[in-house]
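Thread: Newbie trying to understand structure tokens

Hi all, I'm a second-year student working on a class project, and my supervisor (Dr. K.) asked me to get a predicted structure for one chain before our next meeting. I've only ever worked with sequences, so writing a 3D structure as a token string is new to me. If someone could post the tokens and maybe explain what I'm looking at, I'd be very grateful. Here's the chain:
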Amino acid sequence: MGMGHAEMTSPYLAVPGAMIGLGLRKRRASEDVSPVLYDASQVLVAALLVAAVASIVAAVASGLETAPEMFIAGNDSTASRLVWFEDRASETLAQPWLLSVPLWAYRGAVALWAVWVLVAGIGWSSWAWGCLKQHGLWRPLTKPLNLPPTVP
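---
Reply by user tm_fold:
Sure, no problem. This is what the structure looks like when written as tokens:
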């Protein structure tokens, strides 16, 4: 629903970016990666997740609070006033038609989508957590000290 807003499309790239990042994290975390690189990639995937959640919240808020942009232009038409004009006509005039639904129908569809995202998000969060902890949440940046055992 919210991805139809052309002026707000770029933040929504965080959602597929986070999904791809999590999938790669689950499959491709090898032991030969340096701890700094591993931890940095974990932070990057977590930042993508935060951006994805924020963009979904923004989509729901935008869909419920604003009227959809209809991109009506030309002949002094606006979203609330359509001006029809045909300067030349044959024997039969063209019959324009318009399919219109009330704004509450749009908002109801956005609300249903939001409920679906909420329910699906519960499963997605479980999958995301599994992807993040698949090969360990963090790797120590320093090697553990090998101290000799203490003698009592």
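A couple of things are worth pointing out once you decode it. The chain has a mean pLDDT of 81. The chain has one domain: 2-77+102-133. Feel free to ask follow-ups in this thread.
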